[in-house]
């Protein structure tokens, strides 16, 4: 199985991504690292533990990482995810304890201990933990197999400003370091994730599953959808973060291009923009596989199958 570390700020769509990963035999989740993003760190690490407990996989360690971006103050998204970050269903307080080690130390230690090129990082929130680990222990950079992240947008532009997607916008300095690291990167931007829209039928299928995870997924997507309908006037909740797990398991369901992507950190109106050289006009070397399309039905079939296999 492909070893991964999920770095996350749950978040309803993060929660679905975590469940999907834990249900997938193709992946071995070495740990889950929380970062400040959708809500402050105290809530993202708590939510991560709640989701792990819901999945029944209490063997998965959860670590708390950075509580604020590298060079800016934290911007959160309670307007999207609710006050708890995981509104939609009330989950019990987790019995699973938070690991004492800092998430950044866990990332560094794991990359040092595991054979070179065997660990993939899967960031689902701002890139603060990843960039901090790279800064503190640059020798681990060459040991990372790949980074498969949700973030950015190009043709679909932004969701937090006209030019920027939330995860990149919150910590553009961290994103810049990660995109300049030389690690192979797969980017699941809004261009792709806005195609992963839930349908009413799919949500009802989840609600009807004879387990506890299916109905939880339905409640989260209901909450998430209410937000997006108001904002975008379209039905369905975009399952941004689960697209990363989908790509890891079934890359054939996705299409994109190997291109150069630079992160704007100083724009007057465009800070946090992923400037994607889709038409390859700059001559700058490719540093990312930028996904633009996905097979929606194939993706949701895969997700349903995985959620159905959980407790
Ligand atoms: C991203 O921002 C968060 O609100 C979601 O969890 C997702 O990771 C989408 O822009
Ligand atoms: Ca997220």
TrEMBL record:
Listed Gene3D superfamilies: Ribonucleoside hydrolase-like
Any one Gene Ontology molecular-function term assigned to this protein's record: hydrolase activity
PROSITE patterns per record: IUNH
Pfam families in UniProt: IU_nuc_hydro
Statement: the UniProt record of this protein carries the keyword Hydrolase: yes
Keywords in alphabetical order: Glycosidase, Hydrolase
Presence of keyword DNA damage: no
Domain named Inosine/uridine-preferring nucleoside hydrolase: residues: 4-301
Listed InterPro entries: I/U_nuclsd_hydro_CS, Inosine/uridine_hydrolase_dom, IUNH, Ribo_hydro-like
Name of this chain's protein: Nucleoside hydrolase
Classification lineage: Bacteria, Pseudomonadati, Pseudomonadota, Alphaproteobacteria, Rhodobacterales
